[in-house]
Structure formats: C-alpha cells, structure tokens
C-alpha cells in the first residue's frame, strides 16, 4: 500500500494570531506587522510549496515504478501459466496408454505392489541418495508420471501423464521406537514391512516410494525398503531398472556385470532348429514331430489354464489362502542360500527344493496323530502361478541411457507378462534327490509349451472384447484356484553400489494378489535370497516354513555329496 500523501497546509491557517489583534490599534503598526507577517507567510508558503511539490512527485514516481513492476510480474505469471497449461496439454496429447496388464493391476481385487528390502553396507547419505534419484530414476517416464483416466467416458483407457516429481513425497523417514530398534532391529524391519502392506499409495503422485530405515541390523548397516505399484512394470523390468541405477563396487564408473547369457535364445521355438537336408528324412521327420508335441503340450496347458480360471481348484491344504486373502496383512521373511549348494540347473534345483520344503511343512502341520497320518494321501499335487516375462529384458546400458536422456521411446516398457500353471508334488520321499529329478521333469515339460505366450495374447484379446473387469475376474479366479505364487530372478554377479551405498542383499516380493503364500528366489553375487510373503494370520510360523527350505536344501546337498 503506498504511503499516505500529506496535503500542504494553507498559508492563512499558519498566520500569527497576534496580527489580527494588533491591526485594530494602529494602521502603521498593522501595515508593518502585515508586511512582516506577509513576508513570513511567503517564506512559509515558498518553503511549504517547494516541499509539497517534491514529495508527491517522488511518491508518484515510486507508485508508477511499483505499478510497472507489478504489471511486468503479472505478465510473467500469465506467460508461465500459459506455458504450463500448454505443456500440460502437450503431455496429455503425448500420454502413453496403459497396457492391459497395467490396467489389470489397478483393479480392486488385484491391486498389486512390488516391494524390495535392500540391505546397505553403510549408513544412508541422504544428500547423495537424493542427487542419485534425481539424476536417474526420476527421469524415467513411468517414475515421473501419474495415472489419468477420463471418468466421464467408460471407454477411455487410463493413460500415463508426466508430472513434476517432489522427492519429499517419495523419500519417507519413519519414526520408529528406539528401544525396539536396539533390542531387535531385524524384527522392527519385518514388522514395518508388514504394516506397509496394509497402507495404500496416493495415486495423485507417481506410484513409488523409498522408505529409509537408517539403523543397523544383523545383515546390513542400514536398510531401504522400496515400494512400487505393479502397474509401473513387471518385476523383471523394475528390478532391472533398479540395477541400472547401481554401479560396480569394484569400479564405480561401470555398470554391474550380470551372469552370462545363454549361448542361444531360450524357449520352445528357438530350441528347434531345422536340420539340414543332408541329415536325411528321419531327422526332418523328428523336427516336425517336435512341433506337433509342442502344439499338443500347449493345447493341454491352455485347456488346464482355462479350466483353472473357471472352476478347477486345488485341494484344500494349510498352504492355500481363503477368500479375501488379497486384502489382508502380509509378512515378508527371508533367508540366504548359497549358490555353492546348487550344482545343477538353477531352476531345476529351486523347483525341487520348493517341493521338498512344502512337503516338510505340510506333513508337519497335518501329522497330529498316527491315524490321521495313515489316512491322509501319500501324494498331493498343488499348483503355483508363475509370471513369465515374454519379451527380452532391456539391457542395463539401454535402461541407463533411457534415464540419462529422459526419453521414453528408447526401450519398450510395460507389463508384457504371461502366466504358467506350475505344479508341485507334495510327498515324503526317501531320496531327497528325487525332488530335484521331479523338478527337472516339471521344468522341462513347461519349457516345451507356449502357455505363457497364449495367456498373454488371450488376456489382451479378452480385455478388448469384454473389458478389463472380465479379464480381472478370470485372472483372479485362476490365482484363487491355485495354491501359491512362484518366481525367480537373476541379479548382478558382482557386488554393486546404490548411489555410493554398497548393497549387501536384495529381497524383493509382491503382495495384493489372492495367494496366502508367495515364494521368490533372487540371486545376487554368489548367493540366493529366498523371500516368502505370507498371510500374517494364516502363517504365524512363517520362520519355521523358512527353515524348512534351508533344511531341505541341506538334505539335498548332503545326498548329492554322498552319491558323488
């Protein structure tokens, strides 16, 4: 508000009051006094007038300058608002439609999240972490975008629209009980992650969070818990993206090394190479027959998958969840297994160890009396849902370049995943190695099928023809009718640093789907981290189940050593 303008006083109001009284006594005196008073008044008027003319002039100049500055600032604000609106319109026009799988993970009964507990070898340097996130992860198109859908149009597809990322919304520093952190820090981490599984995310922001738990545990100097919505991408892509943010601990200027890729592309189609004509008609006939077997296996698997989605349900066991399990609190427990224990194909061993561990747990839970033990079946088949990434995972260099350039068109991104129904045999076998043999047969059989590719394309077709609600109902039915989820992923082959923080272990998992038990294996360096996500109420003995896996691997290794 401009300062008040003081109006000059009237010269007459400043005349000496004595001049009026003396004028009645003498004309001469009056004239003399009047002249004197007049001169004084003139001086007074001149002085007053000079001051009064200068002050308003300076005030008017200041007011004019302030008004000009205010108009200039208003024009700048208007221009910025116009540019922001234009940029928002460009973002909306360039918005990326969500994939069918990404839309599926938005559904109420299929609202899935990926979590990863990362153990660090040093206390958290918040400034370095913020700088690293701003330079890498925040620049990725999914991590700086929000999900936008047109509520007025039922046919409109949700889209990814870029937004401004405020790191303070995504870096979370919880206040925990200092006494509990000192007494049992591992339990504090476990309880915190369990509580996190009950808390929703704010969909008005990019759907990812880093929870900093900066206190030592038995395995690490500090812990970071990462939570991301599954609609951001499939597990393989998201883990690869996190690894692309790391650098080799031996050479911080270099991306980490991954285990060597197979010499040829894996899969049922690439494994069948047409023999040269020189090998004869028999070799050619065998090649054709292999494709016929592939088609037969695919047909059987597809029929089983459809039946499972509609009505074919696993037998009720202590491992199977109940209705509404996807909404209940989960608990995440993990242990470390050594790759030195695994001498055969890794997937074969992991399937065999899982079968052995589930068998130990099942028969212990159901062996209350000898009569019950004799009455129950000797062999039970339970099935797991296995998510399969059906496209080649982008390389670390491509992912790093995508974040550095802040572009979203360098590599293909999104949820391109199919499902496989993977059976496990629950049985008490005298030879522990028989679990491995059965696991190998199961894996080889599933490799000889196009089930994952069919489920991916059929899922997209169902979304287009019948909508996302129908696809979600079928997918939910398939998971609810199976017993557990099973997955494994390959991590760096060497020790890595995450924004200058050495990583001791990586323990990822998932929740929000209708399973009471999820088994995940994550390799890193020369170890495998086994992570179990369980219904907190149904599996109060989650650590005992974890011990069953470790004990099963020990017995298998002991049996293998005895036969070698």
Can you put this structure into words, describing what you see?
The radius of gyration is 37 Å and the shape is globular. The chain has 564 residues and is α+β, with helices and mostly antiparallel strands. It folds into two domains: 100-248, Chloramphenicol acetyltransferase-like domain (Chloramphenicol Acetyltransferase, 2-Layer Sandwich); 288-368 and 379-493 and 502-562, 2-Layer Sandwich (Chloramphenicol Acetyltransferase), CATH 3.30.559. It has 15 helices and 16 strands. It has helices at residues 18-22, 27-93, 100-104, 126-135, 178-183, 185-196, 235-244, 281-310, 346-365, 370-375, 396-405, 433-447, 451-466, 468-480, 542-563; strands at residues 96-97, 113-120, 145-148, 159-162, 171-172, 208-213, 222-229, 246-248, 330-338, 379-389, 417-427, 484-489, 496-498, 501-511, 517-524, 527-535. The longest helix has 67 residues, at 27-93. The strands form three sheets. A seven-stranded mixed sheet has the order 5-6-7-2-14-13-8, with helices on one face.
């Amino acid at each position: 508000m401009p300062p008040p303008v003081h109006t000059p006083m009237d010269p007459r109001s400043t005349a000496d009051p004595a001049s009026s009284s003396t004028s009645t006594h003498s004309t001469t005196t009056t004239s003399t006094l009047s002249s004197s008073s007049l001169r004084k008044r003139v001086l007074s008027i001149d002085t007053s007038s000079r001051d009064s003319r200068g002050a308003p002039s300076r005030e008017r100049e200041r007011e004019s300058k302030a008004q000009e500055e205010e108009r200039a600032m208003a024009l700048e604000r208007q221009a910025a608002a116009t540019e922001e609106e234009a940029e928002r319109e460009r973002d909306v026009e360039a918005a990326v439609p969500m994939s069918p799988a990404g839309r599926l993970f938005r559904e109420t009964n299929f609202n899935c999240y990926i979590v990863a507990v990362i153990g660090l070898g040093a206390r958290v340097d918040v400034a370095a972490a913020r700088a690293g996130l701003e330079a890498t992860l925040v620049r990725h198109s999914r991590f700086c975008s929000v999900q936008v859908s047109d509520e007025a149009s039922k046919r409109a597809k949700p889209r990814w629209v870029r937004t401004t990322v405020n790191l303070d919304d995504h870096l979370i520093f919880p206040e925990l009980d200092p006494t509990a952190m000192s007494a049992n820090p591992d339990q504090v981490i476990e309880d915190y992650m369990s509580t996190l599984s009950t808390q929703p995310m704010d969909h008005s922001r990019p759907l990812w969070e880093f929870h900093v738990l900066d206190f030592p545990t038995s395995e690490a100097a500090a812990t970071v818990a990462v939570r991301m919505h599954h609609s951001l991408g499939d597990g393989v892509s998201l883990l690869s993206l996190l690894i692309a943010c790391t650098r080799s601990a031996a050479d911080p200027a270099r991306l980490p090394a991954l285990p060597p890729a197979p010499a040829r592309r894996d899969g049922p189609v690439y494994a069948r190479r047409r023999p040269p004509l020189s090998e004869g008609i028999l070799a050619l006939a065998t090649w054709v027959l292999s494709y016929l077997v592939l088609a037969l296996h695919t047909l059987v698997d597809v029929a089983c998958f459809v039946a499972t989605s509609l009505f074919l349900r696993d037998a009720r066991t202590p491992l199977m969840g109940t209705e509404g399990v996807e909404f209940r609190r989960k608990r995440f427990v993990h242990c470390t297994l050594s790759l030195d224990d695994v001498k055969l194909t890794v997937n074969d061993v992991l399937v065999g160890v899982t079968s052995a561990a589930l068998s130990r747990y099942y028969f212990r839970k159901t062996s209350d009396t000898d009569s019950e033990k004799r009455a129950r079946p000797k062999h039970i088949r339970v099935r797991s849902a296995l998510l399969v990434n059906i496209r080649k995972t982008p390389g670390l260099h491509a992912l790093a370049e995508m974040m550095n350039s802040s572009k979203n068109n360098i590599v293909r991104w999104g949820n391109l995943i199919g499902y496989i129904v993977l059976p496990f045999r629950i049985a008490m076998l005298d030879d522990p190695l028989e679990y491995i043999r059965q696991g190998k047969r199961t894996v080889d059989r599933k490799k000889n099928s196009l089930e994952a590719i069919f489920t991916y394309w059929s899922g997209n077709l169902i979304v287009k023809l019948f909508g996302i609600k129908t696809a979600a109902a079928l997918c939910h039915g398939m998971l609810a009718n199976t017993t557990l989820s099973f997955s494994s992923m390959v991590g760096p082959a060497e020790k890595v640093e995450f924004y200058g923080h050495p990583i001791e272990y990586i323990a990822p998992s998932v929740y929000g789907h209708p399973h009471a038990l999820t088994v995940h294996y994550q390799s890193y360096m020369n170890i495998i981290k086994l992570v179990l996500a369980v219904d907190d109420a149904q599996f109060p003995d989650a650590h005992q189940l974890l011990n069953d896996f470790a004990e099963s691997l020990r017995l298998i290794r002991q049996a293998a050593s005895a036969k070698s």
